[in-house]
């Protein structure tokens, strides 16, 4: 009897949980107006690289935003190809960008309208070389040229065999 009542309690909880999660997701989705969603969608497509950050590139307001700016500088992303938005200046943008991307944190970076990720993902891509490839393939930075006088193959100079004594 006791086991049956516990089982039925869990079963009731189990049934109500998905609808509670779903309704909270739908409620959160409705917080971003259609107009705000359209503005963000247009913003991420308007420039080759778009960064939503806390502060500005000259004065980042968090270490993660500072790290992303430094990585983009390190890769030579030109200022005319980078548009930044300070989410601290606009509360609707601050919460809206998180909902738009379905990513819970800021900074967020987009390349040619595609969401790339946040600080941790960008650091990983930088370390693996993927970020440079992404930026080159999207025309943000020029493709790296090999340094003159170097090749990918190295050969040893030929030596003549000397007869052994």
From TrEMBL:
GO annotation, cellular component aspect: mitochondrial matrix
PROSITE patterns linked: GLUTAREDOXIN_2 (PS51354)
Region (Disordered): 143-165
One Pfam family, short name: Glutaredoxin
UniProt entry keywords in alphabetical sequence: 2Fe-2S, Iron, Iron-sulfur, Metal-binding, Redox-active center
Domain annotation Glutaredoxin: ranges: 49-116
One annotated GO molecular function: disulfide oxidoreductase activity
BP GO terms, sorted: [2Fe-2S] cluster assembly
The keyword Metal-binding is annotated on this UniProt entry: yes
Ranges annotated as spanning the membrane: none
Record's protein name: Monothiol glutaredoxin-5, mitochondrial
